[in-house]
Amino acid sequence: MGITSAIVLYLVLWFVTFLTVIPFRLKTQGDVGEIVYGTQSGAPHEHGLRKKAKITTAIAAVLWAILFYIVTTGLITVRDIDMFDTMGTQAADTR
Question: Are 55 and 17 contacting, i.e. CB atoms less than 8 angstroms apart?
């Protein structure tokens, strides 16, 4: 895995994790009972994005490390997930 693909993998994991973490412990204006005029009652009252970004960074780092290990060691390859045998058989290594 090259440096660029490692960075892209981490960024994709970070954003997917962030979008998953955002709704946790979200206090809406409707929950608190302080609805600001002109906003929806489901708008956040306290979002805690800084804390959620730190949690996301930690989770994404752990997931990235696991996936990096799997990819670099060859534990799972593309041929392992080729369910329909579209890649054909792999030629034997004759070194």
Answer: no
Alpha-carbon distance of 58 to 54, in angstroms, equals 6
Q: How many domains does the chain have?
A: 1
Q: Quickly list DSSP for 43-63.
A: SEEE--HHHHHHHHHHHHHHH
Of the candidates 75, 58, 50, which has an alpha carbon nearest to the alpha carbon of residue 10?
Answer: 58
The predicted-structure confidence for 40-83, as pLDDT tens digits, reads as follows 888 888 888 899 999 999 999 999 999 999 988 988 888 888 88
Task: Assess contact for 20 and 3: CB atoms under 8 A.
Answer: no
**Host domain of residue 57:** 3-81
Cα separation, 55 vs 61, whole angstroms: 10
